[in-house]
């Protein structure tokens, strides 16, 4: 049995954009804008191709855009798959458990750092109502602290 050729980054991007095509973020923007920003943030932080691919897919399983079964058989590196799974929050999961899994998975922290940076971007938060903005700002700050990232 031969191993399939791994998906290229442009193929991963195309797949992620298609998987999330019907989704919007909390401000009503196409969700793919968030994925592109996280991938760019990973690249800017010196991330490697596995991490950039994981950035494009970091919410795919959690948001049910793709299944865990798909991920398991996808033509992606084991490291990319591990990072995506590490970044997939489970319903009711305590933030401490989620942070522990990220910290225990090589390469995941950099992707989560880029994700948090985009989620907490003041320009992105500014379009939300005050209660949502305050709740998310506190949530992101708590996760940064749990991950040992600077405020």
From TrEMBL:
Highest taxon, organism lineage: Bacteria
Protein name: HD domain-containing protein
Organism: Streptomyces sp. R39
């Amino acid at each position: 049995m031969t191993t399939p050729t791994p998906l290229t980054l442009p193929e991963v991007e195309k797949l992620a954009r298609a998987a999330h095509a019907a989704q919007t973020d909390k401000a009503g923007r196409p969700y793919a804008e968030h994925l592109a920003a996280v991938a760019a943030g990973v690249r800017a932080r010196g991330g490697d191709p596995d991490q950039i691919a994981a950035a494009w897919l970091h919410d795919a399983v959690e948001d049910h855009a793709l299944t865990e079964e798909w991920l398991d058989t996808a033509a992606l590196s084991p490291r990319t798959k591990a990072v995506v799974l590490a970044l997939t929050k489970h319903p009711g999961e305590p933030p401490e458990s989620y942070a522990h899994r990220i910290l225990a998975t090589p390469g995941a922290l950099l992707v989560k750092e880029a994700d948090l940076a985009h989620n907490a971007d003041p320009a992105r938060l500014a379009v939300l109502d005050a209660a949502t903005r305050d709740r998310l700002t506190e949530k992101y700050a708590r996760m940064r602290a749990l991950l040992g990232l600077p405020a």
